[in-house]
Design goal:
alpha/beta, FAD/NAD(P)-binding domain, 2 domains, five-stranded parallel beta sheet, 22 helices, binds NADP nicotinamide-adenine-dinucleotide phosphate
Amino acid sequence: MSPRDDQSALQQRYQEERDKRIKNSAARSVQGLEGEFAGYLHDPFADTGFVRDPLHKEFDVVIVGGGIAGLLTAARLTQAGISRVCIVEKGADFGGAWYWNRYPGIACDTESYIYLPLLEETGYMPTRKYASGLEILAYCRKVARHFALYDNALLQTEFKGAQWQEDTSRWIVRTDRQDVLSARFVVLIGNKLHRPQLPAIPGIKSFKGHSFHTSRWDYNYTGGDSRGGLTGLSDKRIGIIGTGATAVQCVPHLARWAKHLYVFQRTPAPVDVRNDRETDPQWAKSLKPGWQQERMDNFTAVVSGYDVDQDLVCDGWTDLARNVKLAAVRKLRAGEVIPDPDAVVQAADDERMNRIRARIDATVRDKSTAESLKPWYRQACKRPGFHDQYLDTFNQPNVTLVDTRGKGIESITTNAVVVDGKEYAVDCLVFATGFEYNSDFTRILGADIEGRGGLSLSRKWQDGAETFHGIASTGFPNAFFIGGMQIGYSPNFTHMLDISARQIASVIAQARLRNATTVEPTQEAENEWVELIVKLSQAKEAVLRECTPGYINNEGVLDLRARKNRLYGGDTVSFLTRMDAWQKDGTFKGLRFV
Ligand code: NAP
């Protein structure tokens, strides 16, 4: 067979696998955690007896969300001289996604030297190339202490909404602890990994065994902690549903401790090499001031396909960008003539996915299990996973992969999971079924806000987000947003969060400098930004349309709402260049200060 025949055979296989998923519409449904499922949201890490008096107080800025975006915003505000900042946070501590997600094996897939922000400011050096969740959580606390953010923090407190008061030009923020906070500015953070979801499998409510979502890991039941040691499982049959990035990390730990582990798979994950290692103290000592920003910028340039002398991070993400995503761009930039750039990218993609599939054959002894674990789609369709033990786990005699071949689980009974008519009895079900990635911003936030004339944000954004630079929206003066929409994309997402945080801090500082009562975008500037986002989104849809449904392609629904809610679709360097030029211009173009 010629390479072209190979390529088209592969494309046909991809198409068939995608169609399997699409045919089974029931397999696409998920269940939000409300009503009788609300118990899954219980915080297992907090002191349930915590009480305090309601707070009625005035702040310069109220930030909703104490994860990395909230910490960065507060840090950048502090550096800009704005100190009366209050962070409202649902968890009992800072950390956000790293507070909630403490499942065994949790670690970051992005290099810690670029992912953990503010390393030079705090004087901290991560212990490994890929920091564990435990280390990241501890670091978030360190950042909060460094910038004295505990002083005004309202932890274990849920945001319940905010109204703009025209007469006082203040936001009134309410919480579930009856706090009434008055603020000149609000910053609302809607992290896409904030609202866990369950699969809507028939019978799920009837299950009488133990169960929990991976973002609320029940160590009282399993024993151990995020480093492992799940001694409570030695006599338990465990079922885990889902095989995304979370499952890839916790499956080896469940397998090590459970009497038996059933892994229920709908679509296999692409699992590449991880290559973790300890931080070299000599290297750490050799770093010069400014090293972290330089490393972040280098990573961004490499993953955006720019020719740089050195790939400082040199990991799976930079490899993916250099050798697949931007295979054609790099050749074109180097002056090569390429008649069909798409074919070059596709060939590089095929080569990488073939390597990932070959790794499965080389690792998993049982041929049928190995076949089931192979991902049949292009790399861009699923978030890549990186793990060096996941595949080997399926060689253990106490581990069974139950491949639903794209169909999903048939039903759940009082004590079992049913696939193809066969019952798999389990004592405990672990839902590694992800988050409401594509839900509306206000649903993720947990409450709505009312801007000028009583306009609610949920109403304004009902057909997709409408922002200027992803951070502000007309009709909502002095309100800022950080969500996973309309800002730059990078596998090092904290870098993008920092861009928003710096921009918000500079706008607030500018409002103060100008003695302005309000700041909001002009309608014209907002329209222009939304148009750009939609145009760049559309340009990516040819590939997304061919993918198996998943959160990356909004489960296959590619409409205007999805386009508006997506991240900036151009390369990351072009996003940063735009933001940099806007900042350097110094006139705060597109914003109206009154
Ligand atoms: P996820 O990637 O959304 O994966 C959810 C899994 O549940 C998928 O395997 C999905 O199958 C399955 N699933 C969902 N609904 C189902 C249903 N109705 N029936 C059967 N199976 C169902 O969630 P995640 O693994 O928690 O990861 C979420 C995101 O968090 C990642 O993409 C990443 O951004 C981040 N994360 C990062 C790290 C890291 O840095 N190390 C680790 C964990 C998570 P299908 O594939 O068939 O849809």
